Amino acid sequence: MVAAVLVPLAFFWPLAWWLLLGSMLHFSLDVWEYGLRLNPFQRKAYGLKLLRGIENDPFRVYLRRYFSDPRFLGGEIAFAALAAILLLLR
User: Fold this and answer.
1) C-alpha to C-alpha distance for 79 and 58, rounded to whole angstroms
2) pLDDT tens across 62-77, in order?
3) Of 10, 46, 52, 63, which is least packed with CB atoms within 10 Å of its CB?
4) Angle at which helices 15-33 and 2-10 pack, to 10 degrees?
5) pTM for the full model?
């Protein structure tokens, strides 16, 4: 849905390409973490599900578990560094 909206918009508004890239990176982290629900009316999630048991946790507990896991913390740091490099090269 995000790509269907942003790709046509990007032909008239170049910033939409960056928004699309950012949203795809966000979705990739979601696929690693617990998975994506492709149909919002079903509970089935597709992905690696590396962080188990978070679906019923309060948000604060989820954040603590997410950032205490070195895989996700490393991914977040790598994406932030890549964003800073892209910003500097622009």
Assistant:
1) 25
2) 889 889 999 999 988 9
3) 52
4) 160
5) 0.66
Cα 39 to Cα 18: distance, rounded to the nearest angstrom: 25
Rg (CA), the chain: 15
Chain position carrying tokens 């909206």:
5
C-alpha dist (Å) from residue 30 to 9, 23, 34, 78, 80 = 24, 10, 6, 15, 16
Residues contacting 4, CB < 8 A, separation 6+: none
Tens digits of per-residue pLDDT, 23-46?
Answer: 888 888 888 888 888 887 887 888
Cα-to-chain-centroid distance, residue 27: 3
